[in-house]
Structure of F0F1 ATP synthase subunit epsilon:
Amino acid sequence: MALNVSLVSADAEVWTGEASLVVAKTVEGEIGFMTGHEPVLAILAEGQVRITTSAGEKITATAKDGFLSMEGSTVTIVAGHAALVS
């Protein structure tokens, strides 16, 4: 079962899709999410969000000023500023 991931900034949807792994930086340290992870609500710290899609593609974005949550198979990352790294 894949994770349903949504990464949004204050003014745009940055990336949405299915993933097998999501790693993000919180104010308490880096955290990784896979299917079956316990529910989490955390404050997002400035840093990278690394997403491995269900197809194995690696997506990297920068994000800061926001929060992230994990509930069921849904990971939502809401940032004041976020952008894909080319």
Summary: Residues 65 and 80 are 5 Å apart (CA to CA). The domain at 3-84 is CATH 2.60.15.10 (ATP Synthase; domain 1). Strands lie at 3-8, 13-26, 29-33, 40-44, 47-53, 58-71, 74-84.
